[in-house]
Amino acid sequence: MSAARTIDVSEVGLRDGLQIERTMIPAEQKIALIDTLSKTGLKKIEITGFAHPKVIPQLADAETVAAGIKREPGVRYAAFVPNARGAERAIKAGIDDLKAGVAVSDSFNRLNVRMTTEEGMKATDEIAAATKGTQSRLVGMIATAFGCPYEGEVSRDRMHRMMDQLLGHDAPIIYLADTTGVANPDRIRRTIEDLNKHFPDATLGLHLHNTRGLGIANALAGLDCGIRHFEGSIGGLGGCPFAPRAVGNICTEDFVHMAHEMGIDTGIDLDALIDAARMAQEMLGRTLPGMVMKSGKASELHAMDAQRVKVD
Amino acid sequence: MSAARTIDVSEVGLRDGLQIERTMIPAEQKIALIDTLSKTGLKKIEITGFAHPKVIPQLADAETVAAGIKREPGVRYAAFVPNARGAERAIKAGIDDLKAGVAVSDSFNRLNVRMTTEEGMKATDEIAAATKGTQSRLVGMIATAFGCPYEGEVSRDRMHRMMDQLLGHDAPIIYLADTTGVANPDRIRRTIEDLNKHFPDATLGLHLHNTRGLGIANALAGLDCGIRHFEGSIGGLGGCPFAPRAVGNICTEDFVHMAHEMGIDTGIDLDALIDAARMAQEMLGRTLPGMVMKSGKASELHAMDAQRVKVD
């Protein structure tokens, strides 16, 4: 399979990023950043999560954020929901895409959301049931899809059962998440080949972390396998609280930059996205790992005199 | 062409890295780091450069470094040489591999070494002549092989002429350098395909920078094209003084980690290499960009209790 010429990028920094930041960002600042992102050409933005406020205090303002944003036509606004209660709240808040994420690894799922994988899958059934007859839809997330820091290799059979379940609920996209950044390009390819073989009608996406510096290389492996749906965090912010020495998702604008350089269309205004990444950086008050916002695009030509460095 | 199962990694941090660091590292510290690297299984280590000391003061101790290291049998010690004078010094110092680098882009080459590409190629002829009848050999470097920050696309004809020249001098490896980090996986593939077609007997290598976060993805594209020779800097240190807002080479241990995770043999003891990266970090007194030295290897399993985070 060859690389798609048009891909779909989903921004998850406001949820996967902010949920582990120590800094509590006021709702109005989140809203301002989401409104900026809505004008970049992104078609999917994960704006918050509907977990219990005690579990993820950084996202305790979920309803306020959802009510405060200016919804851009054509943009789908998503949120992470761990259970039926979260689904009800998200639906009431008018969230388009409810992200239901369960880890293939039992150990990881228990640490992450205090449910076994089996219990998590039951919660997904309840989330799916909650969306029935509403404008909201369930989007699938299979966490630790490429390995677990506690268990190592994950069970392919378990992953297949999760795929079956999500497809049974008509999940329009199923994101395979490298939650703790243990994937490598080979494992990405083998996993996608396996799932393509067993579930030819499924639409797969990749949710990658850059924990070991392989995030963008893993995304390239996914592109080469024909994957069209990718998630990232602007500036590379984010991470996972239970991942050993976790770091963030792949940097959205660095990934979009690579795609554009390769002639792949994202529908995104990269300059506007870089501006949004700088806004996120200011909001958090620290330098984020994104590279293109510092180096500029590869296609930007520089004047020679401006770069002259004294060498003698 | 499919990925090689055995690759050859060359460490260039002591030259490409240190030449732009503001910190002047004493020769004995460089020697200690090189001696540590010599025991990691690396077969190629670029230890210094023989430019005029006024041009690159950080490498003014080239002779002292070359004389001070303990040479490990089977390891080739390399150095960058800009001209005949540098070649004579390097040969006298017992350097195995003389790296002669010329940029395809005239603008870049003039800024970098104050010679046009044509003059640089003449210098390469002189370096090659100097190695005749010695134990030293010429290794080729084509800089700005994937684009120039001042000129944009580089001429393929010019690159072919440089290949012809280097092959005429029996260069055993010709490294294609993405000097300022403007490459993308597609351009890497197209360039390698073109050179493989026109120069089927050449042995190509990749010297990549991570300026825009694509270094490891570009290396993956090279691996996929069957490239077997790669350069990197431990910890990701390094860069280029004339590259606009330059950052370092790809991080050697992060790249080796990826290769090992993909089942590709490098002959390198990754744990020993990570220790060397930590040593480089201490030597420079600042956090280097390498990721695996912070996160640990993907294959390392973690105890669940050690990672428990309070969530309520």
Automatic annotation (TrEMBL), chains A, B:
GO molecular function: acyltransferase activity, acyl groups converted into alkyl on transfer; hydroxymethylglutaryl-CoA lyase activity; metal ion binding
Domain of life: Bacteria
InterPro entries assigned: AIPM/Hcit_synth_CS, Aldolase_TIM, HMGL, PYR_CT
Keyword Cell cycle: no
Gene Ontology process terms (BP): ketone body biosynthetic process; L-leucine catabolic process
Keywords assigned: Lyase, Metal-binding, Transferase
Family the UniProt entry places it in: Belongs to the alpha-IPM synthase/homocitrate synthase family.
PANTHER family with a match to the protein in the record: HYDROXYMETHYLGLUTARYL-COA LYASE
Protein name (Swiss-Prot/TrEMBL): Hydroxymethylglutaryl-CoA lyase
Organism of origin: Pseudorhodoplanes sinuspersici
